[in-house]
């Protein structure tokens, strides 16, 4: 019973991380399979995250402010 609780907690935590990085929470299921988890961790470490592409636009930062 303890193993199931730990597995659920592990998947839940990984799902929260996936959501914050802009990926589907289904990626958290790779935490249950050790070889898949290693590949997923390597993949997430070296790709461009979808969240990086959604940068907010700052009006004052680009120098095109009219005034």
Which features does this protein show?
about 70 residues, mainly alpha, 3 helices, about 0% strand
Secondary structure: elements and pairs:
Layout: H1 2-21, H2 34-46, H3 50-53
Transmembrane segments: 28-47
Keywords: Membrane, Transmembrane, Transmembrane helix
Summarize the structure in words.
The chain is mainly alpha-helical and 67 residues long. The protein has one domain. Helix content is 55%, strand content 0%. The protein contains 3 helices and no strands. It has helices at 2-21, 34-46, 50-53. The model has no long low-confidence stretch (mean pLDDT 81). The chain crosses the membrane at residues 28-47. Keywords: Membrane, Transmembrane, Transmembrane helix.
Question: The biggest beta sheet, please?
Answer: none
* Poorly predicted ranges: none
Number of strands: 0
Q: What is the rounded distance between the termini?
A: 65 Å
Number of helices: 3
Number of folding domains? 1
- Helical content stands at 55-70%
Mean pLDDT: 81
Q: How large is the share of residues in beta strands?
A: under 5%
Question: Structural class of the secondary elements?
Answer: mainly alpha
Order of helices and strands: HHH
Q: What overall form do the CA principal axes indicate?
A: flat
As a whole number of angstroms, the C-alpha radius of gyration is: 18 Å
Short synopsis of the structure:
Keywords: Membrane, Transmembrane, Transmembrane helix. The protein has 67 residues and is mostly helical. It has helices at residues 2-21, 34-46, 50-53.
